[in-house]
Write a structure and sequence with these properties.
The chain is of the alpha/beta class. It has two domains: 227 residues, Rossmann fold, CATH 3.40.50.620; 80 residues, Uridine Diphospho-n-acetylenolpyruvylglucosamine Reductase, domain 3. The strands form two sheets. A six-stranded mixed beta sheet has the order 3-2-1-4-6-5, with helices on both faces. Strands 7-8-11-10-9 form a five-stranded antiparallel beta sheet. The chain starts with a helix and ends with a strand.
Length: 338
């Protein structure tokens, strides 16, 4: 008798996400496992499907140290991964640093740890267990923040080192697959993270309050529709980014002393705003603006310098940058007081 339908869906999703790796001479992936239902379902599906494709499977669990008993949980998750055949299994203990709130600090620490584990083991990919419902939540959060196309495009199924095989699978299916995996030899009951019920976090409020109301008032399928919108917007964002990248060689350069990034304001002004702002953001980043500090307001102000009748005007930017319009050129100079 074959596997439960939910298990089969997850295994098929993993196979689709990894099929390009079979051409690699020594393919290996790492599964990021928290002990929650989504990551346990992904772990079980990957440990079944990937070896049959000739792909070695390892696992990594990140202990953020945010709850008592986190060390014991990490060890239990690691033991489960090993019992399912993952090798190697890594436990990464991290410390949260930096601003932006608890969620942002935990995310930075987690992704840094996952990248280090991948490089240490020679893995070509790290698999993350985000589901279609996670995608819908991400789109709603982007809408609430007034974000642009790239943010509303949500999470990409494949972004550099990271892959999300279950991104098109709904959370109910993933959770059911995790319950099946819990009954297998060496399996563990999914861990319920208390932070997933703490309404101090915006994502939790979207999950438990906003999406259920939308489903009740607009009918079922809202999460799936939001995820489809993310897919369409990602295609648009990719096309606009590619168009902007093509403009960089002819519009953006550096001065002889390498201290100033120079933009052809006249040439840039003839492009659509969506392309201008992308070019300006890339130019500011190339000049040294910190990506975490450069926001949409800064880019809009740069666009005003380009499009307005503002010869001689200047603007301070993060990273001790000053933007200065001189005739038909925009100069982004480092080392200026902000």
């Amino acid at each position: 008798m074959g596997p439960a339908a939910e298990v089969a869906v997850c295994r098929t999703a993993v196979r689709r996400a990894l099929r390009d790796l079979v051409e690699h001479p020594r393919p290996r992936v790492l599964v990021a496992v928290s002990g929650g239902p989504d990551s346990l379902a992904l772990l079980a599906a990957t440990c079944f499907a990937a070896p049959r494709m000739g792909i070695a499977v390892g696992a990594v669990t990140v202990d953020h140290g945010l709850q008592s008993g986190s060390v014991a949980l990490a060890r239990s998750v690691a033991a489960t991964a090993a019992a399912l055949g993952a090798e190697p299994v890594t436990i990464a203990h991290v410390q949260l640093r930096g601003g932006g709130g608890l969620e942002a600090a935990a995310r930075r620490a987690r992704y840094d740890a996952l990248e280090r584990a991948a490089h240490a083991t020679g893995a070509q990919a790290v698999l993350l267990a985000h589901s279609r419902d996670d995608q819908a939540e991400t789109v709603l959060l982007g809408l609430a923040r007034g974000s642009g196309t790239r943010s509303l495009a949500g999470m990409a199924p494949h972004a550099g080192l990271f892959r999300r095989p279950l991104l098109a699978v709904d959370r109910h299916t993933v959770a059911a697959a995790a319950q099946v995996a819990a009954t297998d030899p060496g399996g563990m009951a999914p861990w319920d993270d208390p932070h997933n019920h703490d309404r101090a976090f915006a994502r939790v409020r979207v999950r438990h309050d906003v999406l259920p109301v939308l489903e009740a008032d607009l009918g079922p399928g809202v999460a799936a529709a939001l995820a489809r919108s993310a897919d369409l917007l990602r295609d648009d964002a990719d096309a606009l980014d590619a168009w902007a990248d093509l403009q960089i060689p002819s519009l953006v350069g550096t001065t002889g002393d390498q201290r100033s990034t120079d933009v052809d304001a006249v040439g840039l002004s003839g492009l659509p705003r969506a392309i201008r702002t992308r070019v300006l953001r890339r130019a500011a980043l190339a000049a040294g603006a910190p990506p975490s500090d450069l926001n949409a307001g800064h880019v809009r102000a740069l666009d005003t310098l380009i499009m307005g009748d503002s010869a001689g005007a200047s603007l301070d930017l993060p990273g001790r940058l000053r933007a200065h319009r001189v005739g038909g050129r925009l100069h982004l100079t480092r080392g200026q007081p902000a």
